Protein 1
Amino acid sequence: MAPSQKQPPAAPAQTHRVPSLVKYEDLLSRTRDFSIIESTLREGEQFSNAFFDTETKIAIAKALDDFGVEYIELTSPVASEQSLADCKAICQLGLKAKILTHVRCHMDDAKIAVETGVDGLDLVIGTSSLLREFSHGKDMAYIEKQAVEVINFVKSKGLEVRFSSEDSFRSDLVDLLSLYRVVDKAGVDRVGIADTVGCADPRQVYDLVRTLRGVVSCDIECHFHNDTGCAIANAYAALEAGATHIDTSVLGIGERNGITPLGGLCARMYTADREYVMGKYKLAKLRDIENLVAENVQIQVPFNNYITGYCAFTHKAGIHAKAILNNPSTYEILKPEDFGMTRYVSIGHRLTGWNAVKNRMVQLGLGLTDAEVKQVTAQIKEMADIRPLNIEEVDTLLRKFHASAEAERIRLSPSDASLHARSSNDNEGTLTAPSPTATDAVNAEKSRLPAPADVSAALA
Ligand SMILES: CC(=O)SCCNC(=O)CCNC(=O)[C@H](O)C(C)(C)COP(=O)(O)OP(=O)(O)OC[C@H]1O[C@@H](n2cnc3c(N)ncnc32)[C@H](O)[C@@H]1OP(=O)(O)O
Ligand SMILES: O=C(O)CCC(=O)C(=O)O
Ligand SMILES: [Zn+2]
């Protein structure tokens, strides 16, 4: 570019807003200052397949503690003798995370719970007319009186206490806010909002939490079911509106199809503030925690799971692959290495492109000219029109192609052969080979259909 055409140097990126331009919404937001209440050992135990013996509960609690969640919520000790014993056992582990147990807002339950050694109680009672009529049969006046009584009792024991209204989004708003005002005045540490049936959308969540933020001075916890697919978005909207605590479970397990998943919430919050999330959670442990829980409840980690799904960092189409190899930010919002994962570029299919194939050639140490890479890419596409090839089949094809290209070069001009081979090795810095955490993606490729005769013959 001629000197006269030079652009002025770019202004430094603006990282802080001028105070007068900070919006009220930004001041409310807790997306950079929130806590996770991990409820795999409470809500997760309500998942249809869940049965956690003591040893498993302890392993899960330790893993979550190591990951860095701020709270671990346990099943009510009133549920069974073993639940009581397990609650006590987990309290004795000396974990960094605070241990909570989840009980009905009733003195009988609270009296048992405060003796277990927990750091706090999560009290709950249904406030929607449906639950008042068909679950516990109590009216709002009774609920209010009971709530204050139980809160005072728990506080008198020096424990943290949260009060939550089950089915908040189908409860009367005036009833709800009056109740929360009363419990806030009674000195509750947190109030909870629960979308028990998964009916809420992010806008409703934002409105309710923001309104509540103006009514109570205590912390606000939110619990979102995923029946209509909004559990993560709702959690994010709640934090934007000033909620301070979000309930999660590993892989989202819980009643019906569950709640906000721990991994999904991490992915979302990392996108909002990578350093903050990486600073407080050991993200590379997610995969092991999910595998531990999946194995215990006899499910597979879903293919499209946030972060750890087998194809979460697999890139396929040629246009994507080229750009990814030049700069991964082009098609990745999450950096796989931040989660102990590995990127994988899949090439044995008809959507592949020569840039991706060239990259694989370089990985294999096989030098070809760009024109030759384009030729072998055409061969891959032709074969992959019959069925996709796995990585070993692609490698076989590339090696065969390379050997015959080399032989041809030597035949034509023996002294120039090695020059050709070296000329295309200029892309080494951008390589991405299948590696241990990409093995799921590689194995999936291998397990596809057996080779039809014409494909196998070409590779033989
Ligand atoms: C939305 C949620 O996930 S809330 C959390 C759900 N968790 C659990 O249910 C924990 C596991 N539950 C259990 O082990 C049992 O249900 C128990 C021990 C809590 C109660 O068992 P049971 O006494 O046999 O009652 P059952 O489960 O049939 O019915 C629930 C009882 O709790 C009462 N109840 C429900 N919510 C509340 C509440 N917040 N405060 C007081 N009582 C309540 C109901 O009225 C009903 O009592 P009743 O029929 O004896 O009058
Ligand atoms: O205690 C809470 O806030 C939530 C209880 C619960 O699991 C629900 O309402 O779905
Ligand atoms: Zn729930």
Note: Confidence is low (pLDDT under 50) at residues 1-15, 420-433.
Protein 2
Amino acid sequence: MTKVLITDPIDQKGIDILSQVAQVDHKIGISDSELASIIGDYDALMIRSGTQVTEEIINSSSKLRIIGRAGVGVDNVDVKAATQKGVLVVNSPGGNTIAAAEHTIAMMLALSRHIPIANSSTLLGKWERKKFVGNELYKKKLGVVGLGKIGAHVAKVANALGMEVCGYDPFVSTERAQQIQVKLSDLEDLFQQSDYVTLHLPRTPETENLVNMDVLKNMKSSAKLINCARGGLIDEEALAQALNQSLIAGAAIDVFSKEPLESNSPLLKVEKNLILTPHLGASTREAQENVAVDVAEQIRDVLLGLSARTAVNIPGLSPDIMDSLKPHLQLAETMGLLISQLSGGQIQKLEVKLQGEFVQHPSQPLIIASLKGLLSKALGDRINYVNASLEADSRGISVVENKDEARPEFASGSLQLTTYGDNGDHSVAGSIFADGELRIISIDQYPVNVSPSRYMLVTRHRDMPGIIGKLGSLLGSNNVNIASMQVGRKIVRGEAVMVLSIDDPIPNKLLDTIIEVDGITNANPVTL
Ligand SMILES: NC(=O)c1ccc[n+]([C@@H]2O[C@H](COP(=O)([O-])OP(=O)(O)OC[C@H]3O[C@@H](n4cnc5c(N)ncnc54)[C@H](O)[C@@H]3O)[C@@H](O)[C@H]2O)c1
Ligand SMILES: O=C(O)CC[C@@H](O)C(=O)O
């Protein structure tokens, strides 16, 4: 029975989708060690931001195929460990954009009008109208750091509120900035000149403590800082000091370097204009339903053997691409598997050459499929589309891509794989015929025309009378049935390649006898 584990609160609509295809178990708030001890039973794990999916947990799994993060940030998942283990990681990149952007705007307004503290005072029976005079957002300068989906929506709403919006994002073009009505600025100027600064970027080693004491000192003393993106982007000790010393006028923080916020956090000792919320950016009914459905559908599809829409660890393999390239991917994987058995030994380099119609397709998926095939004899079930590139890289196999626009020999173009390794260079070329049939069209540059079959024997021999007959009778006398046979040669009576499709695997002893046949220089049994 397929089993899915859910360890954070997930909207019922997502659970209903998963229940159609799997047994769904809930263990909300489970500890890391408990999770590591039970993960081996599960095919899929669905989480929000509460669960830390560590390397230890991933390595304790044995049949885990997918981790679904119902939200955007995957910084609570060790994606590298998942990739190494061949576990797909999917998220919901757009499901909570509006929720997080609106929480940011709410934080800005609440800060500006002292809403939380005025509420507490009023509930205590006080009537402190003078104490809580605020300021307007209208005509104030807003600096947005990170102009992705949420940053762009915040900018849109802020523009509608009459704010002047500037932004910093090293990956956003001037055209895109113009489109979302944001004036691009450098980071230092943005902090120095803005009345409000809001963060909307991921936490990475480069962005950690992006807002530190130097940056806070550079801000206006009337400025306010909002972080509804990720904990760790702000040095919390420095922020507490900056607020206590009135270096800046206020801050509103939804996300923390350690969550839940620890009781000894310096932020809990700040007495001035600081609003804290417990990671509520995505907590709207609408967003929770969006992300739960989005991620549950992807988990369901992957468990059913289909592809995922938004995998974070297999770039370039969207469902559309997978569908349109199905025969091409199958050809690339089959050729990878074939060439690994012809090459033997350690491979240092794989060259992937695309010709004719193949050049029109994205090459990355074809490379991944070739690598998956190439490594599958060595790694068995452990290799998949998720970890193929990483596994090749860790084995020191470099990949070179080569596109040949010249008029192809085959109308449908061709794909050629060449390996360079301990046993010299080997190449296999293939194509797809009009009926979608896969064909191997050359082996080691010898032209052949072979439909790949489960068992094959590929020999190298001298082109001379009698060899084919001898081989045929050897196989026959050992009860190995030949389904088809092809000989490829460049010159008459020169070196040749023979490809036999056979119904049964070749026993090792028979292989030794084949190699002893006069004229046969090499014989490679192949299983596809
Ligand atoms: N508080 C919440 O509950 C909540 C909800 C949703 C998303 N988030 C977080 O909000 C952040 C933004 O989410 P998004 O959906 O807009 O993501 P996104 O990927 O659409 O946008 C992120 C942007 O940050 C930019 N960026 C990366 N490095 C940068 C740097 N060094 N300086 C400036 N910009 C940089 C990227 O170019 C990108 O445009 C993420 O960290 C996400 O995890 C939080
Ligand atoms: O799970 C949540 O509620 C938070 C999600 C949010 O941080 C995200 O990155 O999408």
Note: The longest helix spans residues 285-303.
